[in-house]
Each structure stands twice: as C-alpha cells, then as structure tokens.
Amino acid sequence: MFSATLKAALAYIALSAITASATQSVSMKVAGPSDVTDVENLQITTTITNTGDEMLRLVNDPKSPLSTMPADTFAITNSAGAAPKFVGIKAKYSMEVLSVEDADAFTVLAPGESIDLTHDLSAAYNFTQSGADAYTFDTAKTLYHFTDDGAIVPIEATTEVHSAKLQGKLVAPRVSLAKRASYNGCSSTRQSQIVSAISAAENYLSGATSYLSSHTSSTSRYTTWFGTYSSSRHSTVLSHYTKISGNDYSSFTFDCTCTRSGTWAYVYADSYGEIYLCPQFWAVNTTGTDSRGGTLIHEASHFTVNGGTDDIQYGQSAAKALAQSSPSQAIMNADSHEYFAENNPAQS
C-alpha cells in the first residue's frame, strides 16, 4: 500500500502536471464581403475562439475587437500599403478599475467556444485619401484575460486576415450631437458635477500653462511626464495646453448616456466640443489623479484643433515609463497631459 505521504506527493505531482498543461490561447478570424460598394456597407465580423483548455474572461477593451465601439481596432492597408484615416473614438479607459462583478466589461469563453462581433468600419475610418482599392483587414492581436483574483494576463492571439475591394463612397457622414443642447441624457446632479469638473479643468490648465511658460529648462515635473527636455518638445506641449486653455468648456456638449465599464470618457477627434462621459467619470473625484477635471483635459487634448493626442499608454506607471523610453510619444499621449496638469503627487 502507498503511504499517506506518498499518496499526497503523487496527488501534488498530478495536480502540477494538470496546471502546467493548462493553456490560454485564442484565435481570431476576420471576415466580410469581398466586394463593397459604399463604405457604409463595410461590415467586418471577427470570430474569436478560445483555443486553449481553460475558461477565459476576456476584457472588452475598446481597442480590441471585443468592443464594437468605433475605436482604432483594425490594421487596414491597401495594395500600396496606405492606411485609411482613423476618425473614430479616443477613450480614457483602464482595466485596473474593473472587478469580476462588472459582467458587461468581459466576454467569457469556455474552451472551444467562439463569439462573432461585427464592426461598422465606416464609423471609424475615412478611406478618401487611401482611395478605392483592394484592402487587407487585420485586427489588434493582444487580448487580456481577467483572472478571479484580478490579475490581468495578456494573450497574443493568432489572426486570419480578410481582403476586400472597396469602391463608391469612401467616407460616411457622422451625426453630431445637437449643438443647441449643452447636455444629453444628463441628470441635474450630473450637470452640476460637470460644471465642477469644468472649473477644476480650467484651474489645472491655468497652472500647467503658467508652469510651462515660466520653466524653459528641465524640471522633475516635466521629465516625469514628458521625458528628456528639449526646447522643441517643450514648445509642442505648451502649444497643446495653450490651445486647450482657449476652449470654452461652457459651450461644449456633454453626453451622459455611455454605459461602458472601465471607461471615463471618449471623443471623436474631429468633432470639436463633444465629449461623451462614461461610468468611471462619475466614480472618481473632481480633482486628484484620474479626476473628472483631469479627464476633461485628457479628452480635449484629443481634439485635432488642440493637438490631436493619442492614447498610447494609460495610467501613471505606464505614462512615466513612456516618458523615459520615448519622449516623442509622451508629448502626444493624452494621459501624460492629464497627469502633468493634475500634478498629483505634486512636483515642482
């Protein structure tokens, strides 16, 4: 007979073998019509399959095909290698604020299970400059598994691309929010919170612009968020804050109907003055890190007329790392602009 100790050892070895053999893998296939007349008919379906042997709780990241929001999710090139212009949303988002209770924030797939998601690419891309041509469509390859204990595990998916010929209309009109209304779907309480956020944003912008104007050499505050000092990069950053400071937030239109978990807000870069506010915006403070006031600066920096920043990295840690590794990208990162303005913890 086996001793109790030996039985325990064998059980441990068996469990370890099972754990070691567990795999997390995903495949994605992009499909759609092979010939498209008019961009409004450019509907692309991505089939996402759990090809591993354990359940996956995949984050519905706006930049992944798991979200149908019109974000920059696809890599699209024509026969000459040119890409269409991205005209979709730029959002402030973080996986770190999610919990397993946020059911709408995830897509759960059992081993072997698939899901199809259809994206209207006319809402995100303008094909006017790249022209009528044959295009190849690939999707963002990195997905994120959210474990029971809150860990975020990246998974690099295998992808199968799609090709299609596009002709006819190459850009779709976008319906803007009614300019006569300052608020859409916002309760009186939320309208009051927006007014307070505007005041906080204006104070942050005044401080940031004044600081940059009076500090024309390297400082810890500047290098933390924008990296190694150079006069040209400093001028770029100052120009962004100067433009944003000139915005009249009281004339903006705010939409409060967004329900996307983990998202503060989003804008369409070419639709100046329209900001869509999401659940995380209401969950944070008016001032401080990732605040409502800071979020308005983040979103306003995305507007093309204000400099057209991107969402290269989210969060303070990632923004600091970006400043050290790539100052040229840091000066175009929206969260970097927000954190410099919020200045929390304070730096001189």
Automatic annotation (TrEMBL):
The family database entries (InterPro entries) matched by this protein are listed as:
Fungal_M35_metalloproteases, Lys_MEP, M35_peptidyl-Lys, MetalloPept_cat_dom_sf
Cofactor(s) the protein requires to work: Zn(2+)
The residues forming the signal peptide are 1-25
One GO biological process this protein is involved in is: proteolysis
GO MF, one annotated term: metal ion binding
> What SUPFAM superfamilies has UniProt attached to this entry?
Metalloproteases ('zincins'), catalytic domain
What CDD domains does the database record attribute to this sequence? Answer: M35_peptidyl-Lys
Q: Which UniProt keywords apply?
A: Hydrolase, Metal-binding, Metalloprotease, Protease, Signal, Zinc
Domain Lysine-specific metallo-endopeptidase: start-end pairs: 210-342
User: What start-end ranges are recorded for coiled-coil regions in this protein?
Assistant: none
Which protein family is named in the record? Answer: Belongs to the peptidase M35 family.
Which named protein is this?
Answer: Lysine-specific metallo-endopeptidase domain-containing protein
